[in-house]
Every structure is written in structure tokens, then in C-alpha cells.
Specification:
single chain; alpha/beta; two-stranded antiparallel sheet; 16 strands; DUF362; DUF362 domain-containing protein; TAT_signal
């Protein structure tokens, strides 16, 4: 059974302006240096990154007015986001919360997810409220860029139409490519350098995993290169994953949004139904020092969730209006909360949990891979990417702090 799981340039003059290298970063699986963010931009704040200053903390804000009968309300979404940011950071108000994490001079990427188009994307209304929050923190519109891995999918979901004037938008690559090992950019022949794309030849994750049909003698097949936008333009990234299940990874949340949305050559993680290695691939990619350092804030769009058939969300009956946002700096804790919520919805709908399904497991006729692998979330915790346990025997400091806020 053939399935496609797509998961994710900025102007040449812009990213070349920041190509000077920072001090060497240790790590056997990654390249030796991290290029500087952008001319005039501050370096990544050591207090932020993964798992961030609030490991284990997951703020869930529920507001019944965020979506009704498939119509989203930006004001309700903005209220939920503001309340969540204040609770996450411990600030007195939303503006103070944004200023606790961002400041003038930051160059900020906003990572969207259009794969569930048209039923369950990162909401444009949420993206616009994030932009307003960044502005309140003093980040200039010219220092923001809204992006997704594939530019064509970004356009296909019409996300570009919602990006305000003066803010750049782009993709790390042009379009879905089954080979996924080319790293060179393309200016589309338009002369518009804001749309140049590509991947960094010097920053990659090496794994001895080769996709079906690739030549194992080609070194490129064992590498996943980070997007140039990630390595050379921005110094912080706000990510907007969506609450969805996933046919091979079990769920697709904050972790998979990074592992499959910020690098190339991701098809090797699940290139055939019986060679699913998402459990290894996802934590390995997110462990890259640049990803860990720059991915400072996760805001999960749980306004509309997908409990079966993800990530594509092709059937309306497998979605539900959930009316929630999840906020965290810890992607592991966030994804474990999301995993529980998806399984709870599946139980309500008479389906087995995501960790038990697959062609070799339960509900085999409905599944595309031998077995799903939501255990990537616990394995990511083993690599120090966040907190997994809800009630750790080591005490509260090592347990998930999941706070639910209900807004009328």
C-alpha cells in the first residue's frame, strides 16, 4: 500500500547575510558548526529551546467559541492564546508573557502545518494572533517569516493569503518529492529571492536508515539536512502543530512536526508499510542541537482534532471540534497529553488505542502500516527532550504538570 506523508527558503540575500559560523557544537551525529542566525539578530537564548524553561508544563486552554459548525472565531482564539501564554510563563498578562520569551532583534520563524488540508490545518487565525504577540514583544514584521516544509502545500492550503503584508512566507522546499535527498534551492525562475528554498549542506542528522528504492552507496540517503531557513535565518521558532493521529507514528504532534517538518529525507522513516522506524527517526532528528536550541515555543492547534486517518484528515467523520489550544516549551510533555486525548476520543468512537493498531495489530483492515509507533514520545524523553511521566516516582519536578483552563 503506497502512502504519502509530506511534512514540510528564504531569500538568498537574507540567509547569506547570516552565514558566519558560531562556535562548534558537539555531537557525533551532526555537523560541526551552527551558522549565525542573521546579521544584527541576537543568538539563541540559552534559557530557551527544548525542553525549555518550563519542562513538563502543558497549558490547555478550552474555549467553546473557537470553532462552531466549522467556523472559527479569531477573537476567541486570541483570548485562549493570551490566557495560555500568561499561564505558561507565569506572567501577569499576555504582553508580559510574550516579552518573557521574545525581544527586539529576534528573527522568528512561525512553523505551520497544512498537511490536514482542508479539514485540520494550523489555523490562520492562530497564526495571526501569534504575529500580534510577537509584535507586542517588539519583534519587527520584517524579522518574522511564516513557513512550512513544502511551499506548494502552503499555497495549496491558501495559508499565504492570510499572511499580513510586510511578513515573509515560504517553504523549505518547493513541493513533495518522493526521493527527498536533493538539498539545493530554487528561485522558481521568478527573480523573487524571497522564495529561494533549500537545505543546509553543513547541518544534518546522519542515520543508517535508507528509504526503499534509494541507492545505499549514496551518502545522501543516510542524511537529513536542516532547512537553510532554520540554520541561517531565524534564531527562534514558534511551532503550530495540529492535534492529529498518524498512521505510522501513532500521533503527529510537536515532535513529529519538527522531525518531519524541518529537514529533508524524511520518507526513510516510513517508506514502506513494514519498515516503519518513526520511533528512532523522530527523537534522533529533534536531538539536533540547532533544532533543540531554536524551537522555543509549541502551540498545538487542537481547535479541530483528527482521531483516525491522520495526518491527511481526508474524512470529516474522523475529525471533531475540540476547541482547545495546548501550549508548552516541552514537546514531549505536550505530545503525551495529546496522545491521551486522541486515545480518549478513539475510545469514545469505539476504536482501539493508537499504540495497538496496525496491519499486524488491532483494526488491521483500516491500517496502512504494520504497527503504529507512538512510543517515539517516551524515547524522546530518554534523550532529554522533555518529561514523559504524569506521576513520576522521582517526584513532581519530573512529572507532567497539565493545567486545564476553561474560558466561557
Amino acid at each position: 500500500m503506497s502512502r504519502r506523508y509530506p511534512c514540510g527558503g528564504l531569500g538568498r540575500r537574507q540567509f547569506l547575510a547570516g552565514a558566519a559560523a558560531l562556535p562548534a557544537i558537539a555531537g557525533a551525529r551532526v555537523s560541526a558548526q551552527e551558522p549565525q542566525a542573521a546579521a544584527g539578530a541576537i543568538g539563541p537564548d540559552e534559557n530557551f529551546g527544548i525542553p525549555g524553561p518550563w519542562p513538563g508544563r502543558v497549558i490547555e486552554v478550552r474555549h467553546p467559541g473557537m470553532i462552531r459548525n466549522d467556523v472559527k472565531d479569531r477573537a476567541a482564539i486570541g483570548s485562549a492564546l493570551s490566557r495560555g501564554m500568561a499561564e505558561l510563563t507565569g506572567a501577569d498578562d499576555a504582553v508580559s508573557a510574550w516579552r518573557a520569551m521574545f525581544e527586539p532583534g529576534d528573527v522568528v520563524g512561525i512553523k505551520m502545518n497544512p498537511v490536514g488540508n482542508p479539514l485540520a490545518n494550523s489555523s490562520s487565525e492562530l497564526m495571526l494572533e501569534v504575529i500580534e504577540g510577537l509584535k507586542a514583544a517588539g519583534v519587527k514584521p520584517r524579522d518574522m517569516v511564516v513557513f512550512e516544509r513544502y511551499r506548494d502545500e502552503f499555497i495549496g492550503a491558501k495559508m499565504h493569503e492570510a499572511v499580513p503584508d510586510g511578513i515573509a512566507w515560504t517553504g523549505l522546499g518547493i513541493a513533495y518529492n518522493g526521493q527527498q535527498i536533493d538539498i539545493h534551492g530554487d528561485d522558481l525562475g521568478t527573480g523573487n529571492l524571497d522564495h529561494v528554498t533549500g537545505y543546509d549542506p553543513d547541518e544534518f542528522i546522519h542515520m543508517n536508515l535508507v528509504a526503499a528504492g534509494h541507492d545505499p552507496k549514496d551518502d545522501r540517503t543516510r542524511r537529513s539536512h536542516l532547512g537553510l531557513l532554520v540554520t541561517r535565518r531565524v534564531n527562534k521558532i514558534v511551532l503550530l502543530p495540529v492535534l492529529k493521529d498518524h498512521g505510522s507514528a501513532g500521533i503527529t504532534g510537536a515532535l513529529k512536526n519538527m522531525s518531519h517538518g524541518l529537514v529533508n529525507n524524511v520518507n526513510r522513516s516510513h517508506s514502506t508499510p513494514d519498515t516503519n522506524v518513526c520511533n528512532q527517526f523522530i527523537p534522533e532528528v529533534v536531538s539536533h542541537p540547532i533544532i533543540r536550541k531554536k524551537c522555543v515555543l509549541q502551540i498545538m492547534d487542537g481547535i479541530k482534532g483528527v482521531y483516525q486517518g491522520g495526518p491527511g484528515a481526508s474524512r470529516p467523520e474522523w475529525t471533531w471540534e475540540n476547541n482547545a489550544l495546548l501550549l508548552a516549551t516541552d514537546p514531549v510533555a505536550m505530545d503525551h497529553v495529546a496522545w491521551r486525548q486522541i486515545d480518549a476520543k478513539r475510545r469514545q468512537m469505539g476504536l482501539p488505542p493508537v499504540g495497538a493498531v496496525g496491519r499486524l495489530g488491532l483494526d488491521a483492515d483500516r491500517e496502512g502500516f504494520d504497527i503504529r509507533q507512538p512510543q517515539h514520545i517516551r524515547l524522546a524523553a530518554h534523550l532529554g527532550l522533555g518529561i514523559f511521566e504524569f506521576d513520576s516516582p522521582r517526584g513532581r519536578k519530573h512529572s507532567i504538570d497539565h493545567r486545564v483552563i476553561d474560558l466561557a
